[in-house]
Amino acid sequence: MTSHEPRDRQPQPRVSTRVNSGKAVLRRTGYVAFMAAVLAFFAVPMLWLASAPFDSDPGLGLHWPDWTLSNWTATFEHPYALGSLVNSVVLCVVATAVTTVLATLAAYALSRVRIPGRDALLYLLLLLSSVVTGTAAMVPIFVMMFQLGLINSQYATGLVLAGGILPAAIFILKDFIDSVPRSYEESARVFGASPAQVLLHVVLPVARPGIATILVWAFVQAWGNFLLPFLLLRDIDAQPAAVLLNTMKDEGGSANLTVIPVFSLLYAVPVVVLYLFVSKRYGFRFHGGIKA
Amino acid sequence: MVSAPPAAGEAARSRRAPGNRDSAGLGVAPAIGFLAPGLLLIGLFLIFPALWTIYIGLTNYTLTGATSVAPAFVGLGNFAEALNDALFGNALWLTLVYTIGSAVLGQNIVGFALAWVLRGARPALRRTIETFVLLSWILPTVVIAYLWIAVLDRDGGTLDLLLGSPGTAWLIEYPMASLIVFNTWHGTAFSMMLYSSALAAVPPSQLETARSVGASGWQTVRDVVFPHIRGHVLTNTLLISLWTANDFTPFLLTAGGPNHESELVPVFIYRQAISSGRLGYAAAISFLLLLVNLVVALVYLLLLRKRA
């Protein structure tokens, strides 16, 4: 409402005051109603995640819970629940570590060294990151892993995930490193540092915010990805939380409604924590590039 | 392969003049060494699969049976079959409806409305709404699917409770409408953020002028704001349409059912490839999807270049 306040405070011709205040009330009411509707639309589905895990009779609908922690005991006793979270961590660590390290190396090289064909390569990366989606590539990736006997391999699945995240990661990080002044590196060179020393002790610390962004982003992508692990990890012992959670739906039965809400919450918490961390530290919006 | 590289396009736009100073003294050969592992992974898991789809799509390769061992080359047979496949036509049509309904209209309009209204909102309110909108975007899709199953379910789902109409199974009776509302909820964050940053670039003096001549909100948006953000609207629409057309999340809500009523192209590909084991046919359809993606992405890049 703040944007309208300055005008309301301005002296206005007497005649029109009544008309204007009527309009203002109408406008104000519409504004409040719109905000309430928006808030309800986005918040109501999420409230289930806060109520159902603690409800002694968890249903699918939203209602005030009869508080209990028994669902949590049931979830911890589920034969695969905790194991699948560990699997998610393994998958995510492989994908995130590979993405971050390879993207940092590639982005630095692309930012600082005039490699032949660099601009074409950058455009190709940008193109690839949006054209070859998981959906469009699921058949060949499945066939490739199937023929290589890598179905059910968590490491291989982690690498496939990394391959998908890398182009955009390189692109974003290259843009970030472009904005880091070269003078730091040049002064270090003047004082006799070797290229390796410059990279480790000058470039890496300066580029840390960009690298952290890529780290968080890659982690969230890999943590939430459903399609690739669903395709490539068919054995329940190897499946991450995303796949197990979806399987619980198909098993049906009311028994799982004690486990599903708690498990959803456990699985969602890392993403929420990372979001809060990033938005507090960097702010979560676009400012030209990823830099926020 | 992943959704929403944060503002990769924005990044492209702000790309600086290439600096030629190799400030760490790395040298071209080591630089190529730095680049190689990343490119190798991209080559293996993005470029090679994309090209291989073309080949698999020209065969009758299957998951099981004789043609799984010795697939035969069938030329354009799969594409000819797709033309006559009513289920594929159905999937194409539904994907079009889904993309236009939830991305071109839903996310675009809700995203812009939010960006426009939240500009002037109290910071606390703005932060609260933005947090919910962003969480609905970044929470794991499987969790999000459950949230919406809880809203739309027949047995005491939240929507039925709110409307006082127990027993309506929204996902079965109105699968496409449910998915469109769902995806508007799920994807609006990107448009909201993009339009927020675009609106920041509209000169405040022009908004002030519009206000002083008594223009209504709609007139201001149409005559003052829109000319400034026209390019953003176009690139935003292209990106969210591309992501929506490739979205696999509907599978988690309806699995394509009931009776193919919500079988979008991504779900169709999955069912053909894995459930029916017809890898060759599914690859041919994937290739068509790749082609559409390529065209959209090329238009997007062209627009970026023109603006730069």
Question: What is this structure's SSE topology?
Answer:
The complex is a heterodimer of chains A (292) and B (308).
Chain A: H1 5-9, H2 17-51, H3 70-77, H4 81-112, H5 118-131, H6 134-147, H7 154-178, H8 183-190, H9 195-206, H10 208-224, H11 227-232, H12 241-251, H13 256-281
Helix pairs in contact in A: 3-13, 4-7, 4-10, 4-12, 5-7, 7-10, 8-9, 12-13
Chain B: H1 8-13, H2 28-56, H3 66-69, H4 77-84, H5 86-118, H6 123-138, H7 141-152, H8 158-163, H9 170-173, H10 175-199, H11 204-212, H12 217-245, H13 250-254, H14 265-275, H15 279-307
Helix pairs in contact in B: 2-15, 4-15, 5-10, 5-12, 6-10, 10-12, 12-15, 14-15
Task: Describe this structure in a few short sentences.
The complex is a heterodimer of chains A (292) and B (308). With 292 residues, chain A is mainly alpha-helical.
List keywords for this structure.
heterodimer; A: 292 residues; mainly alpha; 13 helices; 73% helix; 0% strand; globular; disordered N terminus; disordered C terminus; B: globular
